[in-house]
Amino acid sequence: MEDEWTLIPQLPDCKCEEEFVDVGRGVKLRVLKWTPADYSSQNGNQLIIIPGWGSVFEGWRPLITEWATRRSIIYIETREKKSAIINRKISKKDFQMEEHSMDLRRIIDHFGLEMTNIDWFASSLGATILLDAFQKQSIGGRSAVLIGPNIDFKPPLWANLFLRFPVPKFTYPVLRKIVLFALEKRIKEEGQKIRYRRMFKAQDLLRMMLSAKYNIDYKMNLQFPDNSISSTILSAKSDKLHSLDGVVKISKCLPNCQLIHIPSNQYAHESEVLKEIETFHNTLS
Q: Under the phi-then-psi rule, with left for phi > 0, alpha for psi from -120 to 50, and beta for the rest, what region is 168?
């Protein structure tokens, strides 16, 4: 599955570029950028996409294929993914929220972007990273569309035990099968099952394990500062991996936020969701 991290997705009616951005601390992140064929810098704001934990591009292809004909897109593959270049020994501390936030700030600076001209689109862990950065006021933006942000990352009891104690590397392939089996039993949406199956087969298992070990104790602080960032959270009642109760709590505590219910988590990965997103964007000044 190496192509998940090496293939540069060439999409219709736009130009695609790949870049490995040095974010410091011995890490370079893979960033993909799509620019519509008729794009002008006067078209407005920069769209930045942060996919979820371990997420591969193919899961987002239907949405991005259509969106890239309308907007300039920067797509960031975060550091737990196999595409990241880490030229040193890693530990679970490398995957704390502050590290992810600093990565985003370095990428914004690298591309010379103005915070107030950024529209964010982030999913799951990506959405949680973004909210954590908003909370610390290390990152800003014009708007944010969030899919299933996590108020915490509570694993099942059996997974909790695996993550609390040292696990030999030779057991990782077996653990991957166990985790995938457990997820597929929990997930109701067929499209979501397919995405997770593909995602788990493509991962660097050590990074995923260390990321999970760090986040096992994460709990979002719901005290958000007042700001001018308009946001919307898209959530599906059928999505069993992202707590609806947690999503509702976040939406009530986050200033200038609205909660929109969508048919399914898979719907958030399809081009049809642009109806909700563009309606939201059209309300912004």
A: beta
